[in-house]
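Before relying on records like the one below, remember that each one covers exactly one chain. Contacts with other chains, cofactors or solvent are not represented anywhere in the record.
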Amino acid sequence: MAYKKRTAQALVICAIVAVFLFQLHFVDDWVGGVLVWNSEEAYLFSGWSGLGYHFRVMELLAALVPAYFGASTAPDENRGCTIVFRITPARIERYVVPDVGFQAYIPKGKTIYAWSGGPLWKWAGEHFERATSEEEREVIEIPKATMLSVGKDISDPHGWSVRNSLSGWPAKSEVDLGGKPIFFYVTLGDLNREISVDVQLPNRERKRILRAKSKFHLVGGREYQRAFRDGNPSWTDVK
């Protein structure tokens, strides 16, 4: 009997300590995406943005009262990145560029340029770098490019094709790389507040490469730190 009483007391003490010390981590995030491909390879440029919140249990309970009346809590963290997937029939490569985001991707020749209305950048294999003044003149100035003109879908079987607006993609779509089909699966849920993207290479199982929830959701401490300290959210890993 005394043993049970001591056990119950220990559990109560642990619960009290957890209320005041244990920290919970929440994220509200989203991803967009632009697919650029030719006959040999495809690139999915995905912009991720996230808001991070962390509360001790007691703080979370206290925050529920104003939230009930429509008052929002300011985020503790706010970060974004661009995640680049290079896709071939043989593999999927993933690169992350923290704190960088673009609105449009412009393929020209053997180069994919990235632009948000300011300086022109280009993808250089594992990172973005500034385009030269001559490239900026040829890609932006001479065509008198605008964000509207460069943000359109393009279908060119003999060159580069572009598909914008990730959340508006079909549930299943296909591109041909090296004569082999690559399938993309986009799933929207919870009134379009959740999104996931899977890719299926030839003779392989589907792999999830992206997911996000535009709503308050719980994540682990390590996931939270990786997203907001490193700018590299783990739930965008190839799985």
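Residues 2-21 form the longest helix (20 residues).
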